[in-house]
């Protein structure tokens, strides 16, 4: 097998996927059967600068180069050969946010990430005008807010894009977005499209909404500011000599590699979990947490708790996106890891998680966490209308404060906001057969999957391939360039995931009842967030960066066997 893979690398028959997550950049190389054969990673973190979460473009460049160099080193160590080309490649990244450029391609203001929640007035006006929920983190909300705030850079604005779109343009020279990523920039017209095998269904921004938004925002040509929209399987350009040198300054990477449309992490998560067909869905647990459900029919009314985005093929998806995910769990894992070290019995991060999470489902642990209550709000949370988040652990004097209840409360707290959003979908009679989970939290088998099934009241599956996460997902989309005689859902089901082992956890009645009791308590206590933020708001102005932990790999939206 190693000789065959060496030949595949030598002859450029592998596919490359790169994803820029919130705490890690990962490069993944797959063979002709889409089996991962090498990887490279680079850890990074956002900065809190002038009241906004951001990453510098220098950090983007350095991180991409480091991740790619690490992948090349891994290939050389495993197979004794240096890759110089690939049969296809793709890039994905965190969705949404705001990268604004002038006519010369110069960045006008620092990159504003999805985590910023300062776009309330713009999002509210757009949602009312369009009759469509525009979340705070969407690119169009950032643009409109800049106009409302009369920011000087708006006069020089020639185009906006996402992080994936920016990297793709640096590599290929093409200003395009995959439809899934584009659906977090501006609403996509998701009306039925007639297309057969080999004919990707064309999608674009909703024309009527564009006209309405243009009048509201007051820019001369809103469409001209947005990247071109492509669906999975369409030609998105090839690696230019400049792009090759930008990614690999050593000169080893050759130009000419075909690229698939750049996608957002939500789209690659759908691919990585085989959840692009109607009645399928997935949950990604990382620094943020979100659920995607592919719709059988359009939602009859807009809901502020729900985004309507698309699969990489352009099919409508209801998305519940929560700004806060597993960061607080990682924080507790760091504390207990340090305790073990101080006690003279150091544990690896995975062992810390395994020990803690096993306590969460111990027979002595209460299904409702024994009266404990945990908020994981490191940032604001639009789903629950929390402007500034504060991580909190609350308990009544008579609560049963045990290790198991503490950990169960933290896991319940990580899933609580997601469950609130999913309740809206249940109310719209949206059906899903099962949800597939991915994210570093699920690297520990058993407890997280079981507790998520209870929180969502639906079976939760773990696919073996999903363990490679978004970087693998975009590599699969790159490989799909050679298989567009079939629809993407058929390609994934019949070729990519055929024969994969699937582990399914059904909701256990005792866990479901316990979580519902916990969630009722959580909803009632939400006003505490506003009080805590008001009492400590001065702290926000001194924040420098998002807290990081020694167990940070658990925060990835990718799953490492399993981001």
TrEMBL record:
Q: Does Kinase show up as a keyword for this record?
A: yes
Q: Specify one Pfam family.
A: FGGY_N
Superkingdom per UniProt: Bacteria
- SUPFAM superfamilies per record: Actin-like ATPase domain
- Keywords, comma-separated and alphabetical: Carbohydrate metabolism, Kinase, Transferase, Xylose metabolism
Carbohydrate kinase FGGY C-terminal domain location is 282-480
All copies of domain Carbohydrate kinase FGGY N-terminal, residue ranges: 15-266
Region annotated Disordered, chain positions: 535-563
**So what family is this one in?**
Belongs to the FGGY kinase family.
Q: What is this protein called?
A: ATPase
Q: What taxonomic lineage is listed for the species of origin? A: Bacteria, Bacillati, Actinomycetota, Actinomycetes, Micrococcales
